[in-house]
TrEMBL record:
Organism, as annotated: Arthrobacter livingstonensis
Sequence ranges assigned to domain Helix-turn-helix in this UniProt record: 12-60
Pfam families: HTH_17 (PF12728)
GO MF term list: DNA binding
Residue segments, region Disordered: 64-93
Protein name: Helix-turn-helix domain-containing protein
Amino acid sequence: MVDLQKFENAHYLTVTEVALAMRVSKMTVYRLLHAGELPAVPFGRSYRVPEEGMEEYLAAEQHATTTVNPPPSPQQTGPAQVAVISPGPLPLP
């Protein structure tokens, strides 16, 4: 038997709503769904994404991008180096 209490307060979004909320294309949302990175419930020929699932995905992505590739500090990169190129003599026509 299905426990209906867990569905009482659930709010589901369409693929279009998810795309607008995430500021990506619908195709990107479909790729995430098919890759299993974003939870979804099949609904006829379309999908519905639990709002909580989208929020968890975004939080995980935010955490992953801030911990994996932090920007280098100025001490790590050192001073900027500039190359000066002199054109030399111009060829005669």
